[in-house]
From TrEMBL:
Entry keyword Transport: yes
Source domain of life: Bacteria
GO biological process: peptide transport; transmembrane transport
SMART domains on file: AAA (SM00382)
Gene Ontology terms for molecular function: ATP binding; ATP hydrolysis activity
Keywords: ATP-binding, Cell inner membrane, Cell membrane, Membrane, Nucleotide-binding, Transport
Sequence similarity: Belongs to the ABC transporter superfamily.
Pfam families: ABC_tran, oligo_HPY
Keyword Membrane in record: yes
Residue intervals of the ABC transporter domain: 9-250
Organism: Caballeronia mineralivorans PML1(12)
CDD domains associated with the record: ABC_NikE_OppD_transporters
Gene3D superfamilies: P-loop containing nucleotide triphosphate hydrolases (3.40.50.300)
Protein name: Peptide ABC transporter ATP-binding protein
Amino acid sequence: MNASAAITVKQLQVHFASSRGAPVRAVDGVDMEIQQGELHGIVGESGCGKTSLARTIAGLQRPTGGSVTFDGRELDDWRRERLAFSRHVQFIFQDPLASLSRRQTISQSLEEPLKIHGLGSASQRRERILELLQLVSLPETCLDRLPRALSGGQRQRVAIARALALDPRILICDEPLSALDVSIRAQILNLFADLQKKLNLSIVLIAHDLAIIRLVCTRVSVMYLGKIVETGPTSELFARPRHPYTRALLEAAPSIDPEIERSCHVQLLSGDPPSPSSPPSGCRFHTRCPFSAPVCEIEEPILRLVDERTKVACHVA
């Protein structure tokens, strides 16, 4: 285990029962590390297991197999100290309107975690609430409002403030921008970047928009059908993608530059992703990969170092 890793994941499996018999292998043998103070992006197609991975790391979903280690202790040990764990690791959901109580004012929502953990007197909690508002750039006038009276961007800022109330070390954010207007996304992205630097937070950002990941993340992990197929520094991964799936994702992402868009050759993937209930043998991507070799159909590639900081699970990378 890397000494600077905040969270270490080893051979993590998250399977769900299915009415069709075979379980859905949402996460199926993931190895990864979240370094202290980094902004780590996780990308991939819908259904690849990003949310299941994030929820399991946050302790909201029990794993089927493997381990998640935080501060040198496995998650199972932390389950006996759930309140202590939640002070260190917080989760931000995709839809702030659904994650905030519609009957609580913003003040009540922000004070609730402080009350649960028995932190401070009423006046100290009020002071902390005002600090949180300042951190996420919200006016004090919103405290007596209900979530429905705020804009989508303001609600997401409230959700972020509530997650920060206990001074966590790690924020896990599941598509936190997808419910927001495009004009608001940049503001929330800048907020994440500022908070990460100011508070030395480790932030895990789940997203399907590669432009968002490229803008703010220091490292990226690419998931396909329950597996991480490539992970490395953002700048290197975008400049030189090693895995054919990563390359296809980057080529399919639209560019704001019309000259680049016209000159870009997009390598379209054939077919749809296989079912996570019955993944193909060997490399799970070989049924859609334009560079598939005979070994890819037989032998499953392991996630290996191809340079000092990049790992790839591919026979032909």
